[in-house]
Amino acid sequence: QVQLVESGGGLVQPGGSLRLSCAASGFTFSSYYMSWVRQVPGKGLEWLSDINSGGSSIYYADSVKGRFTISRDNAKNTLYLQMNNLKPEDTALYYCARLKSAYDYWGQGTQVTVSS
Fold first, then answer.
1. Which end of the chain is more exposed for a tag (fewer CB within 10 A), N or C?
2. pLDDT value at position 22?
3. What gap in Å lies between CA 9 and CA 107, rounded to an integer?
4. Is the pLDDT reported for residue 113 higher than 90?
5. What is Dmax (Cα atoms) for the chain?
């Protein structure tokens, strides 16, 4: 059974940092592109970043470029998102997802709230 489990979300002050993790199981993690996507309450999904199987090709949305860093540890079957200089508008539910021909598997999401 394919599983993606996000963790690391929480409450942080503006300007603070969080590191999200996505633990993958039930498939060959090292063979897949992976992505981070977020959902703001009352708004649509926003793609944030993706990374290829080897970590050599990385893409970011303009809204987070320079502040967020995606990475992966294939030996640990884990995807990461380092988030720095967080802003209130970063408050959202953060998902990791597996990309094949489309995003076929998603995690349950981890909530990030940026507030003073």
1. N
2. 98
3. 13
4. yes
5. 40
Amino acid at 101: S
Question: Distance of CA 8 to CAs 12, 26, 52, 81, Å?
Answer: 11, 21, 22, 9
Mean pLDDT of 88-96: 97
CA distances from 27 to 14, 46, 59 (A): 37, 25, 23
State residue 102's pLDDT score: 82
**With contact defined as beta carbons under 8 Å apart, do 101 and 31 qualify?**
no
Q: How far apart are the first and last CA of the chain?
A: 40
Q: Are the CB atoms for 97 and 4 separated by under 8 Å?
A: yes
Question: CA dihedral in degrees (69, 70, 71, 74; nearest 10)?
Answer: 170
Residue entry with tokens 């981890």:
110
Q: What is the DSSP letter of 100?
A: S
Residue-wise pLDDT tens digits, 23-82: 999 999 999 999 999 999 889 999 999 999 999 999 999 999 999 999 999 999 999 999
